[in-house]
């Protein structure tokens, strides 16, 4: 469960938080990935940035999107959880697209390549 203490590198403008970071760590404390959040131009708007590291076959993947919270002054852990849920939905859509591509490639190459 996401808690306020999980949100690091807070940036303040006066008394308001305008940026922070969430770092997902494994059981041993090693960083797996991180998400940076910053206040958008609109009153209830937040932006989220996730950069997934490069692999042997693919360059880094950058995900950046904005979202609107229902009202201002909501708890930071709710702001973070909302952004992460939007990211999760996007990942699910991307996975579905890649599964469809995988299926297509299987049909195209069936009988040609063992």
List keywords for this structure.
5 strands; 114 residues; elongated; alpha+beta; 1 helix
Question: Would you mind describing this structure in some detail?
Answer:
This protein is an alpha+beta fold and 114 residues long. The chain contains one helix and five strands. Strands 1-2-3-4-5 form a five-stranded antiparallel β-sheet, covered by helices on one side. The radius of gyration is 18 Å and the shape is elongated.
**Roughly what percent helix?**
25-40%
- Sheet/helix structural class: alpha+beta
What is the CA-atom radius of gyration, in angstroms? 18 Å
The number of helical segments is 1
Strand percentage lies at 35-45%
The count of β-strands is 5
Physical arrangement of strands within the biggest beta sheet: 1-2-3-4-5
Q: H/E order of the elements? A: EEEEEH
Task: Specify the biggest β-sheet.
Answer: 5 strands, antiparallel
Point out poorly predicted stretches: none
Amino- and carboxy-terminal Cα gap? 45 Å
The outline comes out as elongated
The chain-level mean pLDDT equals: 93
Secondary structure layout plus pairing:
Layout: E1 7-13, E2 16-25, E3 31-39, E4 45-52, E5 61-68, H1 76-109
Antiparallel strand pairs: 1-2, 2-3, 3-4, 4-5
Briefly summarize what is shown:
This protein has one helix at about 75-110, and strands at about 5-15, 15-25, 30-40, 45-50, 60-70. The chain is of the alpha+beta class and about 110 residues long. Strands 1-2-3-4-5 form a 5-stranded antiparallel β-sheet, covered by helices on one side.
């Amino acid at each position: 469960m996401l808690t306020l203490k999980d949100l690091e590198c807070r940036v303040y403008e006066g008394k308001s938080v305008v940026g922070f970071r969430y770092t997902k760590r494994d059981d041993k404390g090693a960083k797996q990935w991180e998400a940076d959040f910053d206040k958008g131009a609109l009153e209830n708007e937040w932006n989220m940035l996730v950069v997934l590291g490069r692999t042997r076959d693919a360059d880094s993947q950058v995900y950046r999107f904005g979202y609107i919270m229902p009202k201002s002054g909501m708890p930071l852990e709710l702001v973070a959880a909302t952004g992460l849920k939007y990211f999760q939905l996007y990942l699910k859509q991307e996975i579905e697209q890649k599964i469809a591509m995988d299926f297509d490639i299987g049909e195209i190459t069936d009988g040609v390549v063992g």
